[in-house]
Write a structure and sequence with these properties.
This protein folds into two domains: 30 residues, no CATH class; 161 residues, Aminopeptidase. The protein contains seven helices and seven strands. Strands 1-2-3-4-5-7-6 form a seven-stranded mixed beta sheet.
Amino acid sequence: MNSEFEKELHKRCLTVDGFRKWYEKQEFLSELVFTPADPSDAEAILNLYRSHLGREFCAWTDDYPSAETINFDLSRNALFCLKTKTGHDLAGVISFDADPETDLLPCWADFLKPSVEFARVAVSLKYQGCGISGKLFSCASLEAKKRGFRGVRYLVAKTNRIALHAYRKLRFPTVGECMYHGVEYWCCEKEI
């Protein structure tokens, strides 16, 4: 078992049914398109954000993220969508944040500057558990590298078990912790 494929196959697919599910997931992920958001996506993005309100572990509120947040991200070309090839179905979103408060946290590595913070990551409820967050982070990391960033970082609420589970697979080192808007967060960062 030398190849990554063989290792993954062995780890996840010990049955024919397990292999079929894994293969379908890989096929589905390859069909998604990562693209900068445009103003016509704003309503769908806001609806996606709103679909998470009130869910266990979600730190978002009725006021955040908002239409204004989306417009701010759009104005900076810092909001990205993962869509089906038809473009009609939004699987997830991620943004490059511009927050001077979190930029000042002492845990960020100087040698990774300039770095960008990934924020407002949301996955459509119907696609959760399909590897969307990993695909978002992977594609956003490539975009960040194209834009000249050396590192990427994010904050994840300590109580958000769903995000913590998804992000564990991304192997971002935890470099610190902080309290932000009354919520405790882990600070994670890695070189790209």
